[in-house]
Write a structure and sequence with these properties.
heterodimer, A: 94 residues, mainly alpha, 3 helices, B: 536 residues, Cytochrome C Oxidase, Chain A, two-stranded antiparallel ribbon, 2 strands, 65% helix, disordered N terminus, binds protoporphyrin IX containing FE, binds copper (II) ion
Chain lengths: 94, 536
């Protein structure tokens, strides 16, 4: 526990990620212009997923933390994905 | 609070008040042991109320026609009974009481990782309970939807849904924070040498449960908020008239509530896995299998929620998937039963009180699990869904499983918690009467269900009268046994003999410290070098 070191991210990286997030926000607005019918929600979730990955990795320092934490977060995300897929087995085949 | 001096006799946590008086010794203490007892007393209080409501329902059902209450009161009674028993009693149950008390001790720690958060969780629990119970008194009458709050009825009924639903929402936070606390505690505070594979089974079970509490509870939280949104703002998530989907509610509800049944049963299995080896004087059989099946249950348990919705009109694809997954999740549960029986095999068994609870647990859990498989098969489910059979099934698992394990754990750890011994022969009498009453109460429900008696009605056809009489009388017998047990334990706290450090000959850390433990459990954090459950 003692030798945990703190990573310091440069402003440049933060600004870069911030602008990426803004671009993706605009993208998720733009994407609603295309008629995707039942896939519209999937598209919105995809963009939101990319954005939250950036936030988790850079802003919340997951990238620089112990591997263990990335594994945990990864498994949790996988769990949510599987739950959504199973729910879709009902919705899409009804 | 100062450290114990080397020479002064160490005070127990019950004597160590931190300078506080009266009730403040309890409600301001961040000691995990006192918080565990706070939960014990509050959960017991709700349990008394829940039992009373249950007995009232049984009295109504003792004969066809209206006996003591009409349809609306009956609907309210089973709803409040269910909400109290599920959200206030069995979900916090073992983790909040024995998890709090024993987890730190069994891993060799002085407290949980976040003691203040731990106390806060109890306050949140109390706030949530008060909200739930206030639904009984405010305005439009007690809620009448059943504990499942199914849409669209839950946002159409004129009864007091808001406080009940909000209360369940608030209770969720208590569960989430407790889970978080236990996960961090298990990762961070294990004593030197306490590697994962030396961890006793109970901490393992609490750890697996904690993950479910942390990850599944937010889903029911959001779902309940959606119901509130429906009621207040008419949004239309679940309202077909507005393009919503009522089955979506059932999905969201059971995505939490099936894993929640594992919040109830996993710690129970953990406690049983402590009791059986101690009273068989044998190392637990297949430690790795037990640990593995605990994690497997926690994981696969997320994917079977649809077995509550087989008759709701899901797609065929979903029906098959959920049925197969349900059969798969039964495997790790069965592994555990084999392990317990194999642990007892050729052991030198003493049939002391905790062992009697544990052995009867195995029996009722088996009945509950096997009837679960009957419900998990698509064809039989169509016949049995929403009949008394389901009520029999989940009472065998939730009450028989979690309840028996809770009482077993209480009798097992009682000498450690209070430093007092209870009267063993009264405890055995209480258990015997309880067990007989229990079987008489719930066994007839399987027959009634197969005969076609629906659940959640205050009345029934005359054909169903016979088994209902047995069931109602069984309830009275069971309550008698329960009262004997409680009085016996109360007397023990007041006048019981002093308990030795290790009355049962257990091997885990809790038996190597004084009864009751000191404030910090260990004078010095122990170093663990031998495997867990080693009997010479
Ligand atoms: C391990 C602990 C278990 C607990 C605490 C538990 C609890 C419950 C509860 C509370 C219900 C009633 C839901 C309602 O209100 O309608 C239920 C129903 C059900 N249980 Fe379990 N159960 C457990 C194990 C199992 C197992 C092992 C299986 C199958 C392998 C199973 C299969 C089912 C099915 C299929 C239903 C739905 C019945 C219906 O409504 O048609 N359960 N269970
Ligand atoms: Cu279930």
């Amino acid at each position: 526990m003692a030798e945990e070191k703190h990573h310091i991210t440069s402003y440049k990286t933060y600004l870069l990620v911030l602008s990426l997030l803004i671009v993706f926000t605009l993208l998720s607005v733009a994407i609603t212009q295309i008629e995707l019918s039942r896939w519209a929600a999937a598209a919105a979730l995809l963009v939101a997923g990319i954005k939250s990955t950036f936030v988790l990795m850079i802003f919340m320092h997951l990238k620089y933390d112990q591997r263990m934490f990335r594994v945990m977060v990864g498994l949790i995300v996988a769990l949510v994905v599987v739950v959504i897929i199973i729910t879709m087995l009902d919705f899409l085949f009804r | 609070m100062s450290e114990n001096k080397q020479n002064s006799a160490p005070k127990s946590y019950l004597e160590e008040t931190g300078g506080r008086k009266g009730i403040f010794k309890w409600i301001l203490s961040t000691d995990h042991k006192r918080i565990g007892l706070l939960y014990l007393y509050s959960i017991m209080a709700w349990f008394f109320i829940g039992v009373t409501l249950g007995v009232l329902m049984k009295l109504e059902l003792i004969a066809p026609g209206k006996t003591i209450m009409g349809a609306q009161s009956y609907n309210a009674t089973f709803t409040v009974h269910g909400v109290i028993m599920i959200f206030l009693v069995v979900i916090p149950g073992l983790p909040a009481v024995f998890g709090n008390f024993m987890l730190p001790i069994q891993i060799g720690a002085k407290d949980v990782a976040f003691p203040k958060l731990n106390l806060l969780s109890w306050y949140i629990y109390i706030a949530g309970s008060i909200l739930v119970v206030s639904s009984l008194f405010a305005g439009g009458g007690p809620p009448d939807t059943g504990w499942t709050f199914y849409a669209p009825y839950s946002f159409k009924t004129g009864t007091n849904m808001l406080p009940a639903v909000l209360g369940a929402f608030v209770l969720g936070f208590s569960s989430i924070l407790t889970g978080l606390n236990f996960i961090v505690t298990t990762h961070r505070l294990r004593a030197p040498g306490m590697s994962w594979m030396k961890l006793p089974v109970f901490p393992w079970a609490i750890y697996g449960t904690a993950w479910i509490q942390l990850l599944a509870t937010p889903i029911v939280g959001i779902t309940l908020l959606m119901v509130l949104g429906e009621r207040i703002f008419n949004i239309g998530f679940f309202d077909p008239a507005k393009g919503g989907d009522p089955i979506l509610f059932q999905h969201l509800f059971w995505i939490y509530s099936h894993p929640a049944v594992y919040i109830m049963i996993l710690p129970a299995m953990g406690a049983i896995s402590e009791i059986i080896p101690t009273f068989s004087k044998k190392t637990i059989f297949g430690y790795r299998f037990i640990v593995f099946s605990t994690l497997a249950i926690a994981f696969v348990g997320y994917f079977v929620w649809g077995h509550h919705m087989f008759t709701s009109g899901m797609s065929g694809t979903a029906l098959f998937t959920f049925s197969i997954l349900t059969f798969i999740v039964a495997i790790p549960s069965a592994i555990k039963v084999f392990n317990w029986v194999a642990t007892m095999h050729q052991g030198s068994i003493s049939t002391d009180v905790p062992f009697l609870w544990a052995a009867s647990f195995i029996f009722v859990f088996l009945v509950g699990g096997l009837t679960g498989l009957v419900l998990g098969a698509l064809a039989t489910n169509v016949h049995l869904h929403d009949t008394a059979f389901v009520v029999g099934h989940f009472h065998f698992i939730v009450f028989g499983g979690t309840g028996f394990a809770f009482f077993g754990a209480l009798h097992y750890w009682f000498p450690k918690i209070y430093g007092k011994m209870y009267d063993r022969s009264w405890a055995k009498t209480g258990w015997a009467i309880f067990f007989v009453g229990y079987i008489a109460l719930y066994m007839p429900m399987f027959f009634l269900g197969v005969m076609g008696m629906p659940r959640r009605y205050f009345d029934y056809l005359p054909e169903y009268h016979g088994p209902n009489i047995i069931s109602s009388l069984g309830a009275l017998v069971m309550v008698t046994g329960f009262v004997i047990m409680v009085i016996n334990l109360f007397r023990a706290v007041k006048t019981g003999e002093k308990a030795p450090q290790n009355p049962w000959g257990g091997t885990n850390l809790e038996w190597q410290i004084s009864s009751p433990p000191t404030l910090e459990n260990f004078d010095e954090i122990p170093t663990i070098d031998k495997a867990t459950y080693k009997y010479d």
